[in-house]
Write a structure and sequence with these properties.
With about 725 residues, this protein is α/β, with parallel strands linked by helices. About 35% of the residues lie in helices and about 25% in strands. It folds into 4 domains: about 200 residues, Medium-chain alcohol dehydrogenases, catalytic domain (Quinone Oxidoreductase, Chain A, domain 1); about 140 residues, 3-Layer(aba) Sandwich (Rossmann fold); about 140 residues, 3-Layer(aba) Sandwich (Rossmann fold); about 140 residues, Dihydrodipicolinate Reductase, domain 2 (2-Layer Sandwich). The strands form 6 sheets. Strands 19-34-27-28-29-26-30-31-32-33 form a 10-stranded mixed beta sheet, with helices on both faces. Strand 20, helix 16 and strand 21 form a beta-alpha-beta unit.
Length: about 725
């Protein structure tokens, strides 16, 4: 199996092949689903490992004292060999995870193989594919709680134990200094306890996040706004409790705690910050300073942790195992929401690179999760919650088979159209008919007159009702499938097998089986030259706005309002039995646009609807914690713009108003031209990119796996509406 390790002497990080641990009595063998990186504790350890020997000594005076004692007892040579041997060894990382029980040791009767459990301990809940975990350091995960959320169990227990030490009471006011992962959880736990919270952190993004999850006010430690907020909430008396969840070498947190506490207030140290208590300030207010020892009673007691000897509940109400179970219950019931804290989800195989990005500051995060191979946890999450899953098939090609090559650029690109309805004749053919280097070869329709009309209007060389003749014509470079929705997948499959480059209007497929059939044609033929008509990402105004918005480091929130309006009576879009739902037909546009803006494919979909499914709310969740909400409504005012979009991240906002105007608000403000102009939703640029790919043989404008993921997410909406539960997109990127 593989495990993340570090050499404390050299600072080297590695994913190492190590033996699978045995399943000893008194514990369980757990296969990891998600493990959580402690961006405080673990990064401190990683940073220390990169220091010089003198730097290591300065950062750990407690260890230096042990070394000096060893020198006095064993002498310099023996101590040197012992210390260098220990430094030059691999040490593990990690202490909070969720996984599936693979094997149960003797003496365990409350979990069984196949159960989902949350695990704790810096010697047991490691960043490794398999861990042996003793009984008192793991608990069953409540039904319906997502594994990625259950992986927060240990850090949640640390925050919970700190809050218990503060003894909060209804109506009190608390100050939380340090709004990293532990501080954010403390804010939510206090809020759930009926306590009003003021947060302190120099990072504006963390302050904003804390306010989103429940804090009454937050600000920089040097800001007068923090003192004003405390004075306003307490009538000038000062806060009842202060929670020190900060790290570093500054003494500012303990000084601020004294200044903003009330008389006889409580100060609880949860983090690892400098504690040079200003004697006068603490004496005059008779402040009660308390320490919170990690996950709770039982921590560091080998009889409790390793031998499984519990403390009687009548004497010790909250042990570390009971804290772990309590925190998971709070998350499962919605009293604590950890999803907003997830800044990034990385595949386990990318662990070393993820630590590097965190250490270098390239990846700014509150919480980072490792996702382990297999995704068995996702399937189990779905079964436990009674929710469905929609597969996102992997794009596979026969070994050694290349994609269909482009024709030599010696003549025009010859195109055939299958279908010539309103969309084809109004949105696609006018652009292609005017484009140099393009020849409209053949139009195929089911009725002779419609083919003749398209031939006359756009100059097709031929008009026919014979599809096979087109697919067998080797002179035709690409086929456009612009028919009714129910025929898209089958026509696309046939054209791919015939070796044609294919442009198919949305949707690509109406069912999972249809989607799988298209991918089977790709695998069989080796022809992956496919484009779906998701044109919004090609809109010039939206592309410019995205460029002006720039990159981002934290998760984003996207809101997309689609004022779709009512359909006319008799529209074939209403034939849901054969043509799929209205959202299935059009929703891919909006899913694709959101995924393009967020630069990822969704991992889950939740959908809710008004009676009759007239108005839909679709929430997409992405690997880095970003969310996109698509409001697809039919009951709005006809005069209101059809599409408005807002993207918010890292203190910036992108706004799009119906492809007419756009703006970006951040350190600098950009607003597009205010002169009225026609809506350009990207069809012309999309067609230009497609024709170029056909002519040159270059990559298709949108990766095939992205087209597949968008289609699967669109299909998941109907599955989610039927089940009334979130839908996991299995194997999504």
């Amino acid at each position: 199996m593989k495990q993340v390790v570090q050499n404390y002497k050299s600072g080297e990080l590695a994913v190492l092949d190590v033996p699978v641990p045995g399943c000893k009595p008194g514990g369980v063998l757990v296969r990891s689903a998600y493990s959580l990186i402690s961006t405080g504790t673990e990064l401190m350890k990683v940073s220390e490992a990169g220091m010089s020997m003198l730097g290591k000594a300065r950062s750990r005076p407690d260890q230096v004292a042990k070394v000096m004692q060893s020198v006095a007892t064993n002498g310099v040579p023996a101590t040197y060999r012992k210390v260098m041997g220990k430094l030059d060894s691999y040490t593990p990382l990690g202490y909070s995870l969720c996984g599936v029980v693979e094997q149960v040791g003797a003496g365990i009767d409350d979990v069984k193989a196949g159960d989902l459990v949350a695990c704790a301990g810096n010697e047991h809940a490691l960043h490794a594919e398999l861990n042996w975990v003793p009984k008192n350091l793991c608990v069953p995960v409540p039904d319906g709680l997502a594994p990625r959320h259950a992986a927060f169990g240990t850090v949640g227990s640390i925050a919970l134990q700190g809050v218990r030490q503060g003894e909060p009471q209804l109506g009190e006011v608390a100050l939380v200094i340090g709004l990293g992962l532990i501080g954010q959880l403390v804010v939510q736990l206090l809020t759930a306890s009926g306590v009003r919270v003021v947060g302190v952190d120099p990072d504006p993004a963390r302050c904003e996040l804390a306010e989103r999850v429940g804090a009454a006010a937050c600000g920089d430690p040097a800001s007068a706004a923090v003192e004003a907020a405390v004075a306003g909430l307490t009538g000038g008396h000062g806060v009842d409790q202060v929670y020190l969840a900060a790290g570093g070498g500054s003494n500012q947190p303990v000084e601020l705690a004294a200044r903003l506490s009330r008389d006889r207030g409580r100060v609880v140290d949860i983090g690892k910050c400098r504690l040079d208590l200003p004697w006068n300030a603490y004496y005059e207010k008779e402040l009660d300073v308390r320490f919170s020892r990690s996950y709770g009673p039982g921590r560091y007691d080998p009889e409790y942790e390793l031998e499984g000897r519990d403390y009687p509940i009548g004497y010790v109400r909250w042990t570390e195992r009971r804290n772990l179970a309590c925190f998971l219950d709070l998350v499962a019931r919605g009293s604590v929401d950890v999803e907003p804290l997830v800044s990034h989800v990385a595949d386990f195989e990318d662990a070393v690179e993820t630590y590097r990005r965190l250490k270098d500051g390239e990846l700014k995060a509150v919480a980072v999760l490792f996702r382990y191979p297999g995704h068995a946890q996702e399937a189990r999450e779905t079964r436990e919650a009674g929710a469905p899953a929609v597969a996102v098939p992997e794009v596979r090609r026969p070994g050694g088979t290349a994609s269909t090559p482009a024709r030599p650029a010696t003549g025009p690109v010859r195109l055939a159209f299958v279908g010539a309805g309103n969309y084809a004749t109004s949105m696609l053919l006018p652009h292609l008919a005017r484009r140099d280097g393009v020849e409209l070869s053949t139009v195929v329709t089911t009725t002779a007159l419609s083919a003749a009309n398209a031939q006359r209007k756009f100059g097709f060389a031929q008009a026919t009702t014979d599809l096979d003749a087109v697919l067998g014509d080797k002179s035709i470079d690409a086929v456009f499938v612009v028919t009714r929705h129910s025929s898209h997948a089958e026509l696309t499959r046939q054209a791919l097998l015939a070796g044609k480059t294919v442009f198919v209007e949305k949707p690509l497929a109406l069912t999972e089986d249809e989607l799988a059939g298209v991918l089977a044609a790709v695998e069989e033929s080796g022809n992956d030259r496919l484009q779906v008509g998701f044109n919004r990402r090609f809109a010039p105004l939206l592309q410019e706005a995205r460029e002006r918005f720039g990159g981002r480091t934290g998760p984003a929130s996207l809101r997309y309002l689609v004022n779709a309006g009512r359909l006319q009576h008799g529209s074939w879009y209403l034939q849901q039995g054969t043509e799929g739902s209205r959202f299935a037909g059009e929703g891919g546009h909006f899913v694709d646009t959101a995924s393009w803006l967020l630069d990822a494919d969704p991992v889950s979909v939740y959908a809710a609807a008004t009676p009759g499914n007239d108005d839909l709310q679709v929430v997409l969740r992405y690997p880095d914690g970003s969310t996109a909400t698509i409001s697809y409504v039919t009951t709005g005012a006809p005069g209101f713009p059809k599409e408005t979009l807002d993207l918010v991240a890292d203190g910036k906002v992108l706004r799009l108003d119906d492809f007419v105007r756009a703006s970006v608000h951040g350190r600098k403000r950009w607003v597009s031209s205010r002169l009225p102009k026609a809506r350009d939703k990207g069809q012309n640029a999309e067609l230009a990119a497609f024709v170029k790919a056909v002519r040159t043989g270059g990559p298709m404008p949108v990766p095939l796996q992205s087209l597949v993921a968008t289609t699967a997410a669109t299909l998941a909406v109907q599955a989610g509406l039927a089940a009334g539960a979130p839908v996991t997109l299995a194997r999504a990127r």
